[in-house]
Fold each of these.
Amino acid sequence: MLSADFLSAAAAICGGGQVLPGSDIEPRYLEPARYAPGRAAGLLRPGSEQEAARLLPLCAAHGLRVVPQGAHTGLVRAGTPDDAQHEVLLSTERLREVFEFDAWDRTLRVSAGFRLSEINERLARHGLMLPIDLSADPSVGGMVSHNTGGTRMLRYGDVRANILALRVALADGQIVQLGQGLQKDNAQLALHQLFIGASGALGLVLDATFRLAAVPRQQAVAMIAPRSLDDVFPLYQRVMARYPGLVSAFEAISREAFSAALAGPDQAQRWFGGQLPDYALLLELSSELDAETLDLQALLQQLLEDEFGEAVVDAVLGADADCWHLRHHISDGLRRQGKVIGFDLSFPRRQFMAFREAGKSWLATHFPAARLADFGHLGDGGLHFNLVWPRELPLDEAGLRDGIYGLVRAHGGSISAEHGVGPQLQQAYWRHTDAAVQRIGGQLQSALDPQGLLAHTRWGQAQGAQEA
């Protein structure tokens, strides 16, 4: 329970209506996109950068840990508190002071509380966008803290590739500007990069300066049935060589995942005459040029005609919206079928299919009831190795995850491609990350936050050993 002194001091900083005890927190702040609801001693909703910064040392002085939270769309529980006695939520949703668009530099400095959808709505009139494409609608702070990628990362890169500067509040309340928002700047260490993907553990993101991209004037999409799995990456290589700079997405969808996304059995006839391939490919070309200058539909059709009978046995054209609707509804479909155990992985392309086969074999031996329904961003090496487990059966999820993560490391992959680490992956991080990396991470975290104020995610080896 929060003390009267703390409640009074916090209310003096950001207003009485913006400081709530745990019993008064709305469910949306505690219920993550996945997993069970969390618990917190209280909720703080600062309305400015200065208010947010002043709250941090106040929490430290009262022995409270801070869990920063944006739109709460993350999948690793980094924005979900789990201690009703010692953790307080600090929501950034009211941090909306800054929206500075620079048309000449094509950059945007924007506060942590703005959502991706609102940013792109405002930029649309200028023909520009923040090129992070997701089925969720995260806030700036959350995207930065987890280094969001998305379905068009192949062309535009992740959040890290699009950030020029950050403004952060450190645990002691100090506000620091990291970078000047310039395209070229080697006048200081690129310290802002340390906070990207750190799950909020090094400091509180207050605002970010992004480079922007032009909104494509046209796109062309095909859902492709390859002849075999062996043809997938050679086809990818030929597509990338044939249309450099035009490929914005190259997604893979297994038959199980494809079926889960369909509204009903009759919907299968819409795709490949009902004969779903083992692995479907979603290919998108996009361009800032208009169709009179460069006809993407014609280019895509010619590609498929040239590949037909070789790497391609069937394809669906002219259904762009339907293709993306299906891709973005896989997760919802899987949840209707059972308990979903999600793995957000990435691999060198040469190891992608090798891991997939090794994972299937390991599951068949150790967890035969698990049904693989994988999909992902094949073009950038990302794999959502998702499993469906019957709800009525008991599950040793910790053992399952540890086995899969061991295979990931053996194949040179990452246990978290774009979801971040957070409490959901904390144990896996400690078990499958080199000791030297953990030691450096712990030293950095201790230097910036010696009291462990923001220690909801822990990067240090010593902290990990204590937790385990």
Amino acid sequence: MGKQWIISISREYGSGGHKIAEKLSEIFDFPMYDRELLDNVFGDEANVEEWRECDEMPAPLAFSKKFSGTKNSSEYTLAKRQFNYLRKKANEGGSFVVVGRCSEYILREYDGLIPIFILGDEDTKIKRVMDRRNFTEKEAKAALARHNRLRERYHNSYCEGKWGDARCYDVCINSSRLGLDGTVKLLEDYIRGRMEQEDEQ
């Protein structure tokens, strides 16, 4: 088995982060974990649909970053199981792409981790949400505000670094500048550069 690489994609809602992750997964032929992570975590033991509303949702306010706070909430239970599953996959040594789930923090001890944050211009994100979900502009703006607020609270519930803080990532990139394909190409070049650097050592 070659060097393990873990591409972690954190993203603003409407930035195209999921699509970018899909394209990188295809380019490098790595499995990808995002919404389907729930199926992997729970398998046949539970009705997965009942957990979807808790996926990437903030922990209760009393929750501690050290996992010593409220431990009986559905949000905490799901987050902990997803984190443990990602660590298990990382410990197996295979390469993969993961979207969100605090992965840039949860998997920070792995040398092959490449944490990336995707952001975007507000007008571009609004248009993407309008097109994708058939929303009005007002509905899209409300969805952006809500989802990004929840993602920030979720991330900051479990991580030491702040969501979107450039110091927590190798690359922070505005996908509105180059478009999705251009952003993918730039990230592909960066990732290949990391891989080549590793080969030279």
